[in-house]
Amino acid sequence: MEKILTVKNLVMKFSNHAVLKNIDFDIEKGEKVFIIGPSGCGKSTLLRCLNYLIKPTRGDITFEGQDLKKTDINLIRTKLGLVFQSFNLFPHLTVLENIILAPTKLKLMKEEEAKQKALELLNSIKLKDKANFYPDELSGGQKQRVAIIRTLIMEPNLIMFDEPTSALDPKMIKEVTSLIQEVAETGITMLIVSHEMEFVKSLATRVIFMQDGKIIEEGSPNEIFKNPKTKELQEFLNN
Fold first, then answer.
1. Plot region of 147 (φ>0 → left; ψ -120 to 50 → alpha; else → beta)
2. How far apart are CA 213 and CA 43, in angstroms?
3. What pLDDT is recorded for position 84?
4. pLDDT for residue 13
5. Is residue 35 within 8 Å of residue 43, measured between CB atoms?
6. β 17-28/3-14 pair status
7. pLDDT tens for each residue of 16-72
8. 192: number of Cβ within 10 Å
9. How far, CA to CA in Å, does 149 sit from each of 106, 120, 173?
């Protein structure tokens, strides 16, 4: 299998506090890798380091054969998408304007082409009628689905999701997880931080368990949930 992302000896320190401690892992093309672990263990920080929203203290990140320290990170971000738990939609822009902003600003699409593609994507999630609404006129589930569409219009090769359901109520969680399942079926590579264990079990090809800034254990969903090897993972799953 072809490796799409390689992380080696990744360390992230804030002042003297190490949030990430020598993180090593690979993701192969087409995998759906989930990261689980207790709050504050470094999961969200890891995703932000992977597309240099936070510059790591040290370590190497290679995406599609390119060393992130030696390439244009803005070009990398067009193919390495990140969906935030807090949606991060611009409140002063409509849904349509939010979606077309990046591809037009980066000159990847002309405005009319971007609008047509955005409307097609909105139609696919039954939100075309919300195209001219502002984010504060949407429900939490609608905002998150728009945030996912905003990433999809860039046609990334790897999408990262940072706890995409954490701010949602149960009905909205189902809306968002169903959309992520549909996107997964296209074969795209995914890296997802989640605390929804049933969602993890249903979609993951591999699960990484983190605690205290370190990868403690990783394996298939079956290995992680039915045969946890470490005391840390056993305690986490029993809580």
1. alpha
2. 8
3. 86
4. 95
5. yes
6. antiparallel
7. 899 999 999 999 999 999 999 999 899 999 999 999 999 999 999 999 999 999 999
8. 26
9. 17, 10, 16
Q: Distance (Å, rounded) from C-alpha 84 to C-alpha 160?
A: 9
How long, in residues, is the chain?
Answer: 239
Q: How far apart are CA 160 and CA 56, in angstroms?
A: 17
* H helix or E strand, kind and range, residue 17: strand 17-28
Q: Would you state the pLDDT for residue 168?
A: 83
Transcribe 30-99 into DSSP letters: T-EEEEE--TTSSHHHHHHHHTTSS--SEEEEEETTEEGGGS-HHHHHHHEEEE-TT----TTS-HHHHH
The residues spanned by each domain of the chain are 3-238
Of the candidate CATH numbers 3.90.800.10, 3.40.190.150, 3.40.50.300, 3.30.70.260, the domain formed by 3-238 belongs to 3.40.50.300
